[in-house]
Amino acid sequence: MEEQPPKPEPETTPVVVSVSPQPTPVQSRMPGGLLGTPAGRLVLAGMAVVVLLAGISGGYYVLARHTRRKPTLLSVSPVSPLSTQRSVGPTPAPASSSGSTGAGGVNPAAPSPAPSPAPASSPSPTSAPSPTPSPTPAPSPSPTPPATLPAPNGYTNLIFDDTFSGTSLNTSRWIGQIADKNGIWDDNGKLPYPYSSVGNQGGYNAEYGSPDQVVVNNGLTLNAARSTTFSGYTWKAGYITTHGKFTFSKGYFQVRAKLPDSRTGGWAGIWFLEGGGEIDMDESGYTACGSAVNNCIASNLNVSGNSQKFYNAGVDLSTGYHVYGMEYKPGKSITMYFDGKQTAQYTANIPTGAYTIILTETMAQNASGWHTLVSGSTPSPMSPYQISEAQVWQ
C-alpha cells in the first residue's frame, strides 16, 4: 500500500474562475449613495475578502476529494481475503470472457467496486498476500499394477488385471479347479479335492484337472501330461477360474495368450460361466477351418437361438502371443475380438448375469469329425498354453 501523499497546494486560477463573485450584482444591491463613500468601499472590500476565502476553501475541497478517488488507488489496494484463499486452495476454473459465475456465486469477470481509501497507517502483517505456493499433487492409490495391455476403445476403468507375476497363483483372484455356482466339478464325487474335471469319465475330455499343471513364473503356463492316477482319465491338465473370487456383470474382457499346438488333441479354452449361459470366447483344435487347425478360433454362446461360429485368423496361433477380447453388454450383445478385429457377435437371448473367467488346457477324445484327437503320437508333456495377462475393463 502507498503512503498517503501530502496535501497539494490549491491552484488559484481554477478557483478564481469558477467561484469569484460577480461585481455587478454586488454593487447593484448597495444603496445608491453608499458605494461612493469611504465606508461603502470598506464594506465592499470586506465582502470580497470573505467571498475569496470561501472560494479557496471550496476549491481545495473539490481538488482534494478528486485526488483521493484517482483510479491509481485501485492498483495498490491489498489483496482481498477471498483471493488469498483461492491462491492456496483448489485451483479455480479460469474466468470466462463472457462473465460466467465462479465459486460461491462470484462473477470472476465482473469488475469490483472501487474500495474506500485505505488509512495512512501501516497495514497489518496479515493483510499482505503471501506468495502462491506450488500445488502438491495428491498421491494416487494404485492397488493394481500398471497395465501392459492398452485399454479397449471406449473403456477407462480397469477393474481386474493379472500379469501373473511371481512364482505362485494369486489365490485372491483364482482357484486351480473348474467350478460354477454349484461348486467344484468333481465328476459326481469321483475326484477328490483338489482335483476336478471339465468332462465326466468317458466323455469328450481325456483329462482331469490337476493343480500341479498350473505354473506361474512371471506369466501363466497351463500344461498337460499323461496320467493314469484316476480311472477313466488318461491325461491331467491345468485349469484356473475366478469362481468365488471375482465376477463381472458388464464390460470388456481381454487376455494375451499363446495357444498350444492343437493338431494332436489339444483343446485350450477361454470361457465364462455363472452369468446365465456358458460363453466360449475361444476354443482351439476345431477342424472347421480345414487343415489349418491352429488358425481356427471357435466361439459360442450356449443359449437358445445361438450357434457356434468359426474364424480363421490367418496365422498359426501357437507360434506367438495374440490378444483375445470379449465385450459383454447385458441383455444386448456379446462380441468377440481377435487382435482388435471383430470375429463373432451374438444378439439373441443375451444373458444379464455376472460371469466368472475360466482358462483351461484340456485334451479331446471321442470328438471325431469336429475336433482333433489325442492318440499315442500326442507328445507328453503337451505343447503349453501360455498367458501373459488377463484384464476386465468397464
Using only C-alpha atoms, the radius of gyration works out to 45 Å
The oligomerization state is: single chain
| Helix/strand structural class | alpha+beta
Helicity, in percent?
10-25%
Q: State the helix count.
A: 4
Which word captures the global form?
Answer: globular
Largest beta-sheet characterization: 8 strands, antiparallel
Q: Count the strands?
A: 19
Distance between the termini: 56 Å
Short description:
With 394 residues, the protein is of the alpha+beta class. It has helices at residues 12-19, 23-28, 38-68, 81-88, and strands at residues 158-162, 179-180, 183-184, 207-209, 214-216, 220-222, 224-226, 235-237, 239-241, 251-258, 266-273, 279-283, 296-301, 309-312, 322-329, 333-338, 341-346, 356-363, 385-393.
Textual characterization of the structure:
The chain is an alpha+beta fold. The strands form four sheets. Strands 1, 5, 6, 10, 15, 16, 17 and 19 form an eight-stranded antiparallel sheet that branches. A six-stranded antiparallel sheet has the order 9-18-11-12-13-14, with no helix packed on it. The chain is globular, with a radius of gyration of 45 Å. The two termini are about 55 Å apart. The N terminus is likely disordered.
